[in-house]
């Protein structure tokens, strides 16, 4: 089918990804069809294949873009030699970055099971890079005697799981401000890793 007059790949492609993101987050990857995505965008179902080979590729691209954006933003943070300050910065970064992207975060964690093995391996590698950044901070603090952690890998996973919890309950305009929430979580993380 011919492309609709006035449609452009740099406009329609992002609209398709945004529609897929919203639908996958709302209904789950398995329950969403390419036809539903096309309807949301306002194009014929066949037109989607001008922009993506299949639904799996769409899911993979959404996850990959999210993880690349996360790593890029993390790497752009100013380097800090003090382990406690670096950990404090990581806590604030993680909470604020993820709260701005609830659909991306939901999909990144809940839809991993729907990736093909090769796509799963690539996304897991990106996730591991992010986890390694936190584990490096914890390991450095352990070596410097600032943190009392028996296993830095387990501590890394526990801290990330704790921070991810904010996404499930925090709402802007609620009882606590984002600054207050961030401070409370920093206090909990700090107590968990220090002697």
Task: Describe this entry's structure for a reader.
The protein is mainly alpha-helical. It has nine helices and no strands. It has helices at 9-27, 34-41, 55-75, 83-99, 102-110, 117-143, 152-164, 166-169, 178-193. Residues 1-7 have low confidence and may be disordered.
Largest sheet: none
Spans where pLDDT lies below 50 across 5 or more residues:
1-7
| Structural class by SSE content | mainly alpha
Amount of beta strand: under 5%
**Share of helical residues:** 55-70%
Strand count = 0
Along the chain, the helix and strand elements come as HHHHHHHHH
Average per-residue pLDDT, rounded, comes to: 92
Describe the global form.
Answer: elongated
Please compute the radius of gyration using only Cα atoms: 20 Å
| Terminal CA distance | 66 Å
Number of continuous helical runs = 9
Summarize the structure.
The protein has helices spanning 9-27, 34-41, 55-75, 83-99, 102-110, 117-143, 152-164, 166-169, 178-193.
Q: Which labels suit this protein?
A:
195 residues; mainly alpha; elongated; disordered N terminus
List the helices and strands and how they pair.
Elements: H1 9-27, H2 34-41, H3 55-75, H4 83-99, H5 102-110, H6 117-143, H7 152-164, H8 166-169, H9 178-193
């Amino acid at each position: 089918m011919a492309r609709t007059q006035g449609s452009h790949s740099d406009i329609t492609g992002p609209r398709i990804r945004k529609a897929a993101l919203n639908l996958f987050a709302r209904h789950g990857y398995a329950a969403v069809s390419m036809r539903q995505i096309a309807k949301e965008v306002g194009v014929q179902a066949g037109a989607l294949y001008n922009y993506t080979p299949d639904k799996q590729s769409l899911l993979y691209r959404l996850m990959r873009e999210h993880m690349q954006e996360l790593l890029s933003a993390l790497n752009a943070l100013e380097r800090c030699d003090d382990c406690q300050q670096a950990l404090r910065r990581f806590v604030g970064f993680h909470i604020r970055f993820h709260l701005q992207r609830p659909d991306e975060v939901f999909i990144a964690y809940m839809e991993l099971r729907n990736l093909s093995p090769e796509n799963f391996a690539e996304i897991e590698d990106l996730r591991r890079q992010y986890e390694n950044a936190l584990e490096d901070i914890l390991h450095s603090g352990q070596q410097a005697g600032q943190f009392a952690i028996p296993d830095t890998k387990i501590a890394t996973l526990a801290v990330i799981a704790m921070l991810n919890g904010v996404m499930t309950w925090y709402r802007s305009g609620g009882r606590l401000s984002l600054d207050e929430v961030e401070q409370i979580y920093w206090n909990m993380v700090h107590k968990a890793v220090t002697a």
